[in-house]
Amino acid sequence: MNRADARPRRALGRRLARIFTVALLSVVAVALFRYAGSVDWPGVREAFGSYPAALLCSAAGLAVASYLLYCGYDLAARRYAGHALSTPRVAAAAFVSYAFNLNLGALIGGVGFRFRMYLRAGIAAGVIARIVAFSIVANWLGYTALAGLLLVLSPEPLAVAAGLRAPYLVAAGVAALALVAAYLLACVGLRERVLCIRGHEYRLPTPALALLQLALSSLNWLTIATILFVLLGREVAYPVVLGALLAGAVFAALVHIPAGLGALEAAFLALLGGHVGQPQLIAALLAYRAIYYIAPLLLAILAYLGLEARAPSGSGDRSER
C-alpha cells in the first residue's frame, strides 16, 4: 500500500478514535452524574473531616516519595540520552512536567513542559525526545508488569466487576508479563538495541537501565496505590486497591480526560463499591486528588514561574548541545 492510499485510512482511524473517545466520555459523564445524585454528601463531608492529621501527613509523605521516584525516570534518562544537565535541574523539569502531566494531560505536561524546560537548559530537541520516550516506556513498563502479576495472581475482583471470566484475565496477565520479558530480553540480545516502530527508531537502553526502568516504575505505581490504601483506612485489601488504580489509569489513558477526571472514580466505584462505604470511598478519592494532583500542581506552577523568571533571555533558542 502506498502513502496516498494509507492517508485516508489513517484519517478514518483518527475520526473513529475520536468518536469512540467522545462516546466513552459521554457514558462516564452520564453515569457519574446519575451517581452523584445518590451520594450521601453530608456523610462524605463527615468522612473527609474525620481524617487525622497523622494519616494525611503519611499520605503526603508517600506522594513526595512517588514524585521522587518519577524524577528518577529523568535522572536515569540522563544516562540513556547522554546529556550532562545537573541533578537539581533534571529533577525540577521532571517534577514540573509530571504535575502538569497529571492535571492537563500527557501532551501538554509530559511532553510540552519537558521540551520547554529542557530547551531552556540548552538540551537538543532530539535528546529531549529520547528523554520523553525513555520516561514513557518506563512508566508503562512497570504498569504492565504489575497489571500482569495482578491478573495472574488475583483476577477475581476485576472479573466480577467487569463481568469477565477469570481465565481470560489470567491469559491477559500472562501476555502482559510476556511483553515485559520480551522488552528486557530485547535490551539484552537485540543487535545494536534498536527497535523500528511505524518508521520511528527507538534505541533500547542497556539491560541495567531497563531493569532500573522496571524497578522505578513498579515502585512508583505501588507507592501511589499505598496512598489510596492509607486514605481508605486500610479497610480494603491492598491488591484490590492496586487493581482499581491500574484499571483507572488505563481507562483515563483511553478517554484522554485531563487529570483522568471520572475515569479513576469510575474504576474505584466499580471495584471497591462492595468493599467500603460510599462516603468513605468518595472522601478518600477527594483527599487523593487534593494531595497527589492539586497540591503538587500549585507547587509546580510556582516552581515553573520561578525558573522562567531566572532563565536568561534567549536560553531556549539553542537546538543543539
TrEMBL record:
Swiss-Prot/TrEMBL keywords: Membrane, Transmembrane, Transmembrane helix
Bilayer-spanning residue ranges: 16-36, 48-70, 90-115, 127-154, 166-188, 209-232, 244-274, 286-307
Keyword Membrane: yes
Protein name as it appears in the record: UPF0104 family protein
Organism this protein belongs to: Luteimonas salinisoli
